Amino acid sequence: MAELTTQERLQPSLLDRLTDDEPGKLEESREKRVISVSRLRECVTRDISWLLNCVSLEANVELEEYPEVSRSVLNFGIPDLTGAALSGINAEALQRRVRDAIVAYEPRLTANTLRVNVNALTKRMDRQALIFNIESEMWAQPIPLNLYLKTEVDLETGNFKVSEGFG
After folding, report:
1. Where is the IraD/Gp25-like domain (predicted)?
2. What are the residue ranges of helices labelled H in the chain?
């Protein structure tokens, strides 16, 4: 099999490339310019966690008159769930909002394969917690990778905990 070109190798995201983990070193090693499959999974999981733990601008400001703003990084995140009661949450609407946010802000996932589903059968789901699964293909060479994430939402704090695997 022919070796992958630099463009085809798994590269860190722009944020990861701009973050200097070793400020004392003047040159970056070859290993820092490409990443492993496991490191890619960690980075995507971390970035989705950051996305879901940010409150979108439209949670506080009406953006119907500003469609460009609603699709921009100014609106990064999802509506605030802090203090929400489980009975007052529309699970389908939340699934749709989470999916839309991931499609808009996580280009490493393939949009047409992305599925977000509330897991209503789990033992951990109670009045103050909501658990759902995120499943998608991740862009990779030579073939896409499958990604399965378990996401727990603590409704008291609004904190999302994202981890690999299904719950």
Report:
1. 39-142
2. 14-18, 30-33, 37-52, 67-70, 91-105
